[in-house]
Amino acid sequence: MKFITSLVLMMIAAQTTQAQQVFDLYPTKSIPGALPATVQEKSETAADGKTRVSLVTNPTLTYYAPAKENDKHVAVVICPGGGYGILAISHEGYDVAKTFASWGIHAFVLKYRLPNTALQSNATFAPLQDAQEAIRWVRSKSAEWKIDENKIGIMGFSAGGHLAASASTHFNSPVLQSNTDCRPNASILIYPVISFSDSLTHKGSRQNLLGQNPTKEQIAAWSNELQVQANTPPAFLVHAGDDGGVHVGNSVAYYQALQQRKIEATLHIYPHGGHGFGMNNKTTTDQWMDRLKTWFTDLKWL
């Protein structure tokens, strides 16, 4: 009986190890733009049970393998939020990835570098560089892992939504040149920072990415509603009307920009919910993750 119990525990442990793996984003080369690290990465779990990471020097992808076979072979890279100052990596990262894996999706949580002039020579571009490299990395594994290279999405929450939107609009001018395409095929943007204009921006995110006194040209370049192009991928957006952190106008502006280009877009605005609710807006019985699942089905991704 003890032998059987031990065997079962070993099998569970093996399945857990297989289901969750951590990969360095730059495994065979030095991290471009990285300066000698003078600090150590921090990971703290607060009383609410949510884990937040800061001072990232080694970007990684945490992979959650699909719990069941899916003939659609879809992958999604997930960018947690945190105002470009921290990463809310549990409820806007790992928890989402586990749900995606249960749907049959290859899920990757991106622990991207946060802009820091003491750690990167290209601090403003470091997060986007990591997001673009993440798309390339997953695409490079498409044959090996049976992922459809034309069904690789990017998802972001809050400032992670800004990063995901940037990856969806700046792929024609990648931070690093490569033979592998860094364009995502769809974007999922949850209470995203989209615009850096004075009327809409989350000032903390803008300051952390662009510094105290960004130029008009920088503000325009990183306002993603102004950067939508003909081949920007379709988007699914969620926001709360009473969001006091990131104005709902951010999602509206991006939705309108996509509409003007005749790009498929879906926008769900809840009257209440505030900011940072992750997968569960407790003010409503409606589950936006169910709506996302329907959207994936309509795209023939599920």
Describe it.
The protein is globular and about 45 Å long. Helix 3 packs across helix 5. The protein contains 9 helices and 10 strands. It has 302 residues and is an alpha/beta fold. Strand 7 (152-157), helix 5 (159-169) and strand 8 form a beta-alpha-beta unit. An 8-stranded mixed β-sheet has the order 1-4-6-5-7-8-9-10, sandwiched between helices. A two-stranded antiparallel ribbon has the order 2-3. The chain has helices spanning 2-19, 90-103, 126-140, 142-145, 159-169, 203-210, 216-221, 249-260, 288-298, and strands at 20-24, 42-45, 51-54, 60-64, 75-79, 106-111, 152-157, 186-190, 235-240, 265-270. Mean pLDDT is 93; it is low at 1-18.
Order of helices and strands: HEEEEEHEHHEHEHHEHEH
Number of H- or I-type helical stretches: 9
What structural category arises from helix and sheet content?
A: alpha/beta
Query: Approximately how much beta-strand content do the residues carry?
Result: 15-25%
Q: Extract low-pLDDT stretches.
A: 1-18
Distance between the termini: 41 Å
Mean pLDDT, nearest integer? 93
Determine Rg (CA atoms, Å): 19 Å
Helix content: 25-40%
Number of strands: 10
Largest sheet: 8 strands, mixed
Q: Which outline best applies?
A: globular
**How are the strands of the biggest sheet laid out side by side?**
1-4-6-5-7-8-9-10
Give the key terms.
single chain; 302 residues; alpha/beta; eight-stranded mixed β-sheet; 33% helix; globular
Write the layout of secondary structure elements.
Blueprint: H1 2-19, E1 20-24, E2 42-45, E3 51-54, E4 60-64, E5 75-79, H2 90-103, E6 106-111, H3 126-140, H4 142-145, E7 152-157, H5 159-169, E8 186-190, H6 203-210, H7 216-221, E9 235-240, H8 249-260, E10 265-270, H9 288-298
Parallel strand pairs: 5-6, 5-7, 7-8, 8-9, 9-10
Antiparallel strand pairs: 1-4, 2-3, 4-6
Helix pairs in contact: 3-5
